[in-house]
């Protein structure tokens, strides 16, 4: 498992289809090493702090293995690191294997998986494909956010070393499906037992069960 690219972007204002908003989704690969702090990478930022950023969304990771899948699905060959708005483009960390709560060392930092990624219209706009956020969600190739347990320097080429597995053992793909795809109450109940799951996702599962 290793880190292929570190990607950052400060917020910028864009106007698409008559809609103007601030976003940090247009990530670009950085050379050399970058400091991973408790809330984000050096040189990175979020345009919408209400829905992005914070302790449980410090860094967004996306498996490079999915690039080939999307290239085939979309008949495109123009992808670059950071294509899906990710900070870390990784190899060897797939959603059906990585569990919420798993801990990893990358370079000088330690991270913990905290939640799947929920796509929005900004991803669709970046890809230039109306409705791509819904396509992305249905594919259950979400990538995932992490908390930073120990700050440190990171860079492309760093090994990703697993430190510990979460005791519940619920994968990112299972958690994502439990809230957005299958919506089985038993899966929601299991997800709520995952201590490391972000507070926002816990509230969503509680609401799902209350309305079941």
Element order: H for helix, E for strand: EEEEEEHEEEHHEEEHHH
Distance separating the two termini: 39 Å
From the spread of the alpha carbons, the general shape counts as globular
Work out the number of β strands. 12
How are strands sequenced across the largest beta sheet? 4-1-7-6-10-9-8-12
Number of helices: 6
What's the average pLDDT?
95
Question: Spans of 5+ residues with little confidence (pLDDT < 50)?
Answer: none
What's the alpha carbon Rg, rounded to whole Å?
Answer: 16 Å
**Strand count, sense and closure of the main sheet?**
8 strands, mixed
Q: What structural category arises from helix and sheet content?
A: alpha+beta
Helix content: 25-40%
Q: Strand portion, in percent?
A: 25-35%
Main traits of this protein?
212 residues; alpha+beta; 6 helices
Helices and strands, with pairings:
Blueprint (H helix, E strand, L loop, with lengths): L1 E7 L3 E5 L2 E5 L4 E2 L3 E4 L22 E5 L1 H10 L13 E4 L11 E4 L2 E8 L4 H7 L4 H8 L4 E7 L1 E4 L4 E5 L7 H9 L4 H7 L7 H12 L2
Parallel strand pairs: 6-7
Antiparallel strand pairs: 1-4, 1-7, 2-3, 5-11, 6-10, 8-9, 8-12, 9-10
Helix pairs in contact: 4-5, 5-6
């Amino acid at each position: 498992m290793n880190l292929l690219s570190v990607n950052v972007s400060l917020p910028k204002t864009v106007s698409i289809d008559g809609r103007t908003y601030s976003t940090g989704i247009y990530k670009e690969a950085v050379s050399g090493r970058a400091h991973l702090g408790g809330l984000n990478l050096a040189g990175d930022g979020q345009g919408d702090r209400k829905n992005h950023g914070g302790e449980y969304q410090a860094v967004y990771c996306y498996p490079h293995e999915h690039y080939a899948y999307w290239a085939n699905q979309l008949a495109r060959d123009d992808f670059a690191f950071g294509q899906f708005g990710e900070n870390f483009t990784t190899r060897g960390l797939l959603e059906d294997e990585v569990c919420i709560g798993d801990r990893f060392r990358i370079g000088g930092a330690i991270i913990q998986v905290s939640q799947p990624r929920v796509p929005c219209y900004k991803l669709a706009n970046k890809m230039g494909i109306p409705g791509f956020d819904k396509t992305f969600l249905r594919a259950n190739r979400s990538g995932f956010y992490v908390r930073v347990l120990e700050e440190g320097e990171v860079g492309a080429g760093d090994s990703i070393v697993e430190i510990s597995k979460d005791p519940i053992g619920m994968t990112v793909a299972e958690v994502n499906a439990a809230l957005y795809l299958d919506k089985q109450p038993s899966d929601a109940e299991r997800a709520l037992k995952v201590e490391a799951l972000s507070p926002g996702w816990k509230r969503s599962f509680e609401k799902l069960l209350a309305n079941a």
